[in-house]
Amino acid sequence: MILVSSCLAGQACRYNGSSALVKEIEALIKNKEAVIMCPELLGGFHTPREPAEIIKGTGIDVINGNARVIELSGKDVTDIYIDGAYKALSIAKEIKATIIVLKENSPSCGSEHIYNGAFLGVKIAGEGVTTALLRKHGFIVMSESQFAANMY
After folding, report:
1. What DSSP element (H or E) covers 104?
2. Using CA atoms, how far apart are residues 29 and 25, in angstroms rounded to an integer?
3. Distance (Å, rounded) from C-alpha 82 to C-alpha 43?
4. Residues facing residue 53 across a β-bridge
5. Residue 150 — pLDDT band, cuts 50, 70, 90?
6. Domains of the chain: which residue ranges?
7. How many Cα atoms occupy the beta-carbon half-sphere of 70 within 13 Å?
8. Is 21:52 a contact under the CB 8 Å cutoff?
9. Three-state secondary structure call for residue 133
10. Tens of pLDDT, residues 69-107
11. pLDDT tier for residue 50 given thresholds of 50, 70 and 90
12. Chain-wide mean pLDDT for the chain?
């Protein structure tokens, strides 16, 4: 079974209330080959919400207690991101996910790039909190573009 970010399946759950629909993923959902989830909603956020970025590190640093996730206003939302990541991990284990496709650049879901924490739109190499936790537990996580290129 494939686990995917809800926004990639067309659900308007991104921080700004938008989706990031990928037609191939939408087809997987219709064919019951994939399950959707949004770690940020699982953690307790609502849509829309303030943008957030990882400060002083990447997702694995957040998991290890060495970095924080902060909203644009300065509010520390690290615990919500960690909670959502653990709930996503539970789902991945429950469905025995073989591949996990998550939204690139997200502080939760980024698999290759995240924003640098300065809220200036600058991306750096790194992964989000959920991706880091899932990979730490042995799951294969990729971005929507990696998935489309490989068409698993």
Report:
1. none
2. 6
3. 7
4. 70
5. confident
6. 2-150
7. 13
8. no
9. helix
10. 999 999 999 999 999 999 999 999 999 999 999 999 999
11. very high
12. 97
* SS3 annotation, 14-82: CCCCCCCCCHHHHHHHHCCCEEEECHHHHHCCCCCCCCEEEECCCHHHHHCCCCEEEECCCCECHHHHH
State pLDDT tens for residues 115-147.
999 999 999 999 999 999 999 999 999 999 999
Q: Rounded distance, CA 36 to CA 48, Å?
A: 19
Share of the chain above pLDDT 70, in %: 99
- What's at 144, amino acid-wise? E
Among 1, 8, 2, smallest CA distance to 108 is for 8
SS3 3: strand
CA gap 131, 100 in Å, rounded? 9
Place of tokens 């303030």: 50
User: How far apart are the C-alpha atoms of 151 and 122, rounded to whole Å?
Assistant: 28
Contacts of 55 (CB under 8 A, 6+ apart): 67, 68, 69, 70, 117
